[in-house]
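Researcher: Re-running this chain for the archive, since the previous output was lost when a drive failed. Same request as before.
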Amino acid sequence: MIVALYRFLFTRFLFLLILFSLCRLLFYLFYSNQFDNCTNEQLGHAFLLGLRFDISILLAFNVVFILLLAIGRFFEIPKAVFFTGKILFVLVNTMLICLNLIDLEYFAFTGKRTGIEILGIKDDIGNQFSQLVLNYWHIALLAFVLFLWLLMRTLRIKYKAVKSERPILYFVIGYAVFIGIAVIGIRGGLQLKPLRPNLAFSVEPGKLGNVVLNTPFNIFMTVGLDPIEPVYYYKDPKEVSAILTAWNTQQKNTLLPQHKTPQNVVIIILESFASEYMGINNPYEGYTPFLDSLAKTNLYFPNHFANGKISMEAVPSILASIPGLMQEPYITSLYQTNTLNGLGTELRKKGYHTSFFHAAKNGSMGFDAFTQNADFAHYYGLNEYNGSEEDYDGNWGIYDEPYLQYFNKNLSSFPQPFVSAVFTISSHQPYSLPDQYKTRFPKGALDIYQSIGYTDYALRKFFESAKKEKWYNNTLFVITADHTQMHEKKKYTNTRGDYNVPLIFFHPTEKLKADTSLITDQIDILPSVLDYLQVTNSAPALLGQSVFGKTREHAYAVNFSNNTYRIFLQEYYVEGNTGKGFVVKDYYDQQLRAANAEEQKFIQAVIQYYTNGMIHNTYYHWENELPFTQK
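Model: Regenerated structure tokens:
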């Protein structure tokens, strides 16, 4: 009986492992261009290690259901109970497979396996479920095919097909041993601590960790996400402050214009706009003729970096100098109620009208709550839009052209001075275009290119309208993007390309001056705007610098993904974590050496400041951070 029992359990489990391995293979094929430099040996190691994560999650969800099926194979139980066990087995494993298929598309947006943070956009998913199924029908079809395969294989399991004269004790002992083996499998082995997602990134190169992981494991291992752990590289927080202050030392900029009238500020955040898609600073034409022309007239920073890979990380970075240096976006984290000292906070004190516009449904990405906490007093979402029904893209919200015209109209109604930000949506998957523009813009090799061309055109029309308004000549425009998207060009298929987004400072009547060759990132926007307006920040973060005062030796950008911290410097970047240490790589991702003492001290200070600042709500008031000995 025991041999028959184990044969039954093994065949059921082997079939599930095959399904998960198929999902891993599909994931690799979808994103194979990101792993071009990996050897066959490295890929083989990643696939082999991935089985450890598959076994863990499959055992965790199937031990009980396999027990029901096993009992029905060897003993007399009600047929209804046996049939229920089969149906539950199918439904639970179909759910796991569907979760595994999410990242065949969603990984393109985040650059990491999906975790429990996806609940932050659960309302968006619910509202657009039918559209998501239609736009990603191939994923839905694949899920349905795998469901049918699993269903047919499970329904074939016969009721009481094996008979044995052995006493039931043999079965109990056999299954007890299986439970013991399963516990070891769920833990991922006999090591001290159970298997965790970050172990997947112990492979080389680290980016293969996304091949190793499966999405259900990552999601369920982040359920009930624990608070981030405090870091104490330095026992005295004054040491951290001293290091970061030294790195943030700015040269006094005497070239900024003196304003006779208060200046307005308009921040335009473009969805999924990588520098790769532009013509400027690239040896090809690109898809953004208007943005290229605008970049040539004032300040364009080609070495500008996003502080994260998703939209929810971009808005806190841009409006409050909070980069995404933890697993969960700030907006949905345990620290979302921390005290904020954002751009709106300082400018409202100066009498500025503050507003934020997002063309998507109200509540999308949690922007409404965050921007209000950041003192952007007026939020305009889809609910407030009063244009034609034809302006709705059928997926996310309002097409960029009509929404930017709506944005312009509202700006003209605001009292001056004002600061306002707008977040576009048309260059978001599924890249919908109004009917009249579906053949107007060049397609190129990537699905996103036409929508990039459309958004660029919408920007042109916006500026044409804005030029006619009284506020236009007294306005600083800051144009950037939330994050990158898919790659085509080899130049951008690397870590640098994964975060390289445009940054433009444009003023219609002033010639701005700065060293545009320097490294910049999204958290620099807040201090840059305040510097331009000559407004003193009452509680500045210790991360972020004004682009008008950066020095070459201390220009930097920061980000975090896949359990890895990065500091981008002028000629190279430093990356690593507390477990693996810190190394220096060139911008072709080739490791050069271990980080030297100064580089290591800086990245450790960044980690300690950010982490403990989030935990203790001292991010803007680091002077309140207590020494380690007093905690």
